[in-house]
Amino acid sequence: MVCPHCSSLYVVKEGKRKNSEGALYQRMSCKSCKKWYSLPIDTEVRGRLPEISSGKILSVKYNEKVRIHGLTDVHVGASEFDMKKFKECIVTIMEDPNARWFGNGDLIELIPPGYKSISQRGQSISPEEQYLTFLDLVQPIRDKCLFLRGGNHDFLRSQIILDLDIVKLIANELNVPYYPMPGYTRIDVQGTRWNLVSGHGKSGGKNGDLELDKMAAVYSQGDVFFLGHNHQLYVKPIDSLKIVNDEETLYRRWYIRGGSFLRYAEYARYSFYPIVRAGWTTIEFSKDRIKCWTN
C-alpha cells in the first residue's frame, strides 16, 4: 500500500471503522509522514512491493542511533524450533523504539511431501501453517521490518517444487522490500553512512569466516558483513589501518554469522555435530560508531 500523502510504502493497518452509513473502512497510518487515512474495504488495493534487484541498494535514514536485529534461520515449523527464544526476540524489538529488523532466509522449515526423501517428522506443522504462523508471530513488529530475503529451506525449495518464491509472498504480505540476492543496505545515521552487506549464505563449513572473506572481497565497501545458513552465532571485529587527513587511523569492520532459532536437533546429536547456541545478533549504528552483539 502506498501512502497517498507522501508515497511511502512504510504504512500499516490500524483497525477498521464504520461511517455514519454503516460502510466499513480500513484505517491506515503512514510511519514516514505520520498521517492517517482510510480506505473502503471493498476498494482496498495492495501496492507492488519494491524488489531490491542485483546491483540496487536499499537506503534508510535515521535521526538517532538504530539497533538492527538480524533474524536468520528461524525455521518456524521445525520440530526443534525454539518458540520461546523467538518470542523473546519479538518482545525485544517491540519494546525498543530504536529497533528495526530484517529476515535473512530460512524463515520457515518447508518440507514438502516427498521432497528428497526428507522425513516429514522434521516439521511439527504443515508448510501452510508455517507460513501463517510466521506472519502471526511477526505481526507486532511488522512495521519495524526493513526487508526480507529467502534461504535454501524456503526460497529454494518453493522454487524447485512450485516455481514460486514463498518468501516473496511473505514480503508482499508484510509490504516490505525483498532481496532475491545478497547486497548492500545503506544505513544513514545523522549524515554518517554505513554499509550493511547481507546474504543468506551457502557454505556449511566449520570456519564461518571463509565465506565472509569471500563476501568482503566482492562487496569491498561494506562496514558490516552478515551471513546466516550455517547456524553459527558470533560477531567479530575485523581491524585494519586507513589514511585519514594524512594520518593512519583504525578502521573497524564487522563479521557476523547470524545464528538460528533451533534447539539441538536429534540428527545433530546422532552425528556429533557441534552444539550451537540458539539466538540472534544485533547491530547498533550511531553517528560515530558501530556496535555488534549476540543475544
Quick structural gist:
The chain has helices spanning 83-95, 127-138, 152-162, 166-174, 209-218, 266-270, and strands spanning 11-18, 24-30, 36-40, 58-62, 66-71, 99-104, 145-149, 178-179, 183-189, 192-199, 224-227, 233-244, 247-258, 281-285, 290-294. With 295 residues, it is an alpha/beta fold.
* Bulk shape: globular
Could you give me the name of the CATH homologous superfamily of the largest domain? Metallo-dependent phosphatases
CATH architecture call of the largest domain: 4-Layer Sandwich
- Oligomer description: single chain
Overall mean pLDDT:
88
Q: Give unreliable regions as ranges.
A: none
Spatial extent as radius of gyration: 20 Å
Give the biggest sheet. 6 strands, mixed
CATH topology of the largest domain: Purple Acid Phosphatase, chain A, domain 2
In total, how many beta strands? 15
Read across the widest sheet, the strand sequence of neighbours is 4-9-10-11-13-12
Head-to-tail CA distance between termini:
33 Å
Please describe what this structure looks like:
The protein is α/β, with parallel strands linked by helices and 295 residues long. It folds into 2 domains: 1-47; 51-294, Purple Acid Phosphatase, chain A, domain 2 (4-Layer Sandwich), CATH 3.60.21. Helices cover 20% and strands 33% of the residues. The chain is built from 6 helices and 15 strands. The protein has helices at 83-95, 127-138, 152-162, 166-174, 209-218, 266-270; strands at 11-18, 24-30, 36-40, 58-62, 66-71, 99-104, 145-149, 178-179, 183-189, 192-199, 224-227, 233-244, 247-258, 281-285, 290-294. The protein has a 6-stranded mixed sheet with strand order 4-9-10-11-13-12. A 6-stranded mixed sheet has the order 8-7-6-5-14-15, with helices on one face. The chain has a 3-stranded antiparallel sheet with strand order 1-2-3, with no helix packed on it. Strand 14 and strand 15 form a beta hairpin. The longest helix has 13 residues, at 83-95. It is globular. The two termini are 33 Å apart.
